[in-house]
Amino acid sequence: MTRCFRGLVMAAAFAAGGLWAAEPAAAQEALHDSHFHYLNYNQDLGMPIATVRGVMTHGVQGDSRTDYSVTRSTLFGIPLQQRWDPSALLARDAGHGDGSFTWGAPSIPDDEPVYYLPTHSELYYYSGVDPLIAEAYCDDVEGLTARDGAPFWDPSITGFNPADVHGADHIVRMMTVYPGIFRAIGEFTIHKEAVATKIAGATPSFDNEALHEIIHVASRLGLVVILHSDMYSLLDEGPEDAAYYDETKLLLKDVGHYFKNYKTPGLLWAHTGIGRFAPKDRTIQLAHFDRLQRILDDPLYNHVGFDIAWDFVARFIRGNPAGWANLYDNANRGKRFVWGSDSLSPTNQQKYTDVIKDYDAIFRVPYTQAPARLMQRDNYAMIFDDPLRRYARGYFAHRTGATKWNCKRDTVVPPPSDDWFKGYDDLYPKEERQELLKAIEKDVDEVIGLYPRAVRAVQVK
After folding, report:
1. Across the strands, what pairs with 30?
2. Considering only CA atoms, which of 374, 348, 292 is closest in space to residue 58?
């Protein structure tokens, strides 16, 4: 059976709901969430950190009678805060006057902006988000050690402007102030539908040197890069139209040499490049999978992976099962996708677990059972636990004088161990490891030399 024909057969069964109906339900499937926003656009949480973890681990049963439980997750906020100016709002609503306003709790208007779409509020980068994430992580004592010995949470740095080299400075500073906590940067945005035009000041562009430097620093410090860039614009009309694909693809190629030491993907393109203005035309939708395949099959992009986070993306995949079948039914490509919820500070259990249900049909298609587990959890662990990334983060902490590790609970920065390389023997043969570790040290030392002010952030003498 040819791959194309197989995809069509699977598509028909998928649409009819028959592919998994006869399968016995698995007792439980573990998920790792690669895309979770603990804080929203007002830097507010939906539930306390331990409660969120409880909701995730409790899980939900999908329509296929499979129980899903999240056993590990990223942890990040939103890098942008919405400007809230009551005087300006009153002046606008009144249609006259100078907008004079006397502040007082009883007179605070009810129209504080809470999400970027229904308002015209200006957005600005808010660096305070990262200390909030670090404190939340450290407050969840039970979550610091999961069942396999790894923390439940993998915090990520988001509070930087991708169009400003000070963003790289901020990343180094956060790694210095909070040793052993952060394992990624992002989700941060280059192009995003209604967001880019609302950001105060300079907005990031694909050829911005600051953006390149931020990715350079993150990769050198062992941080996974989670990048949002919409592939399409509202004006795209035909299968050849993808307004931002070529520019994003060129950026991904240009930064590839920063990840040369790593054998696992270090840059995750969020939502597979799909945004809110994703194409409705069927021919464009099918062309989307071809665009992903061109990246996945080109060795120049081995450092690139994709998250399929967001219920919008789940519906896109379910609506195009043949395209997804032909793309994903491949041993190499199956190692480049990670699942994520893209949940935004959920306020109750259902608001989080409903997103998991959206992916049940995708996870349970029989021909993707083995790679589905890669996407559900294994790829995430391979990327975030890459021994070279672990070593880079630890070596940076050691070189910058960290005396405490992991929320100041451990007094010694962990040295590299052969146990770190379990499961990575094919990627990092034992005879090559010492040279690779030396290369990592050289890269980290270079970053320390470039950003001495950030490294001095915690010096007291």
Report:
1. 69
2. 348
Measured between alpha carbons, how far is 110 from 9 in angstroms, rounded to an integer?
A: 53
In eight-state DSSP terms, residue 348 is S
184 pairs with which residues across the strands? 156, 224
Handedness of CA 192, 194, 195, 198 (dihedral sign): positive
Express each pLDDT in 83-139 by its tens digit.
777 665 554 455 444 444 444 444 445 556 555 544 567 888 999 999 999 999 999
For domain 3-84+111-389, give the CATH superfamily. Answer: Metal-dependent hydrolases (3.20.20.140)
Cis peptide before 432 (omega within 30 of 0): no
- Domains of the chain by residue range: 3-84+111-389
3-state secondary structure 187-233: EEEEECCCCHHHECCCCCCCCCHHHHHHHHHHHHCCCEEEEEECCCC
What is the sign, positive or negative, of the torsion defined by CA atoms of 124, 130, 131, 132?
Answer: positive
Model confidence at 309, in pLDDT bands (50, 70, 90)? Answer: very high
Query: For 18-38, how does the pLDDT look when each residue is reduced to its tens digit (9 = 90+)?
Result: 333 334 445 479 999 999 999
Rounded-to-integer distance, Cα 113 and Cα 88, Å:
13
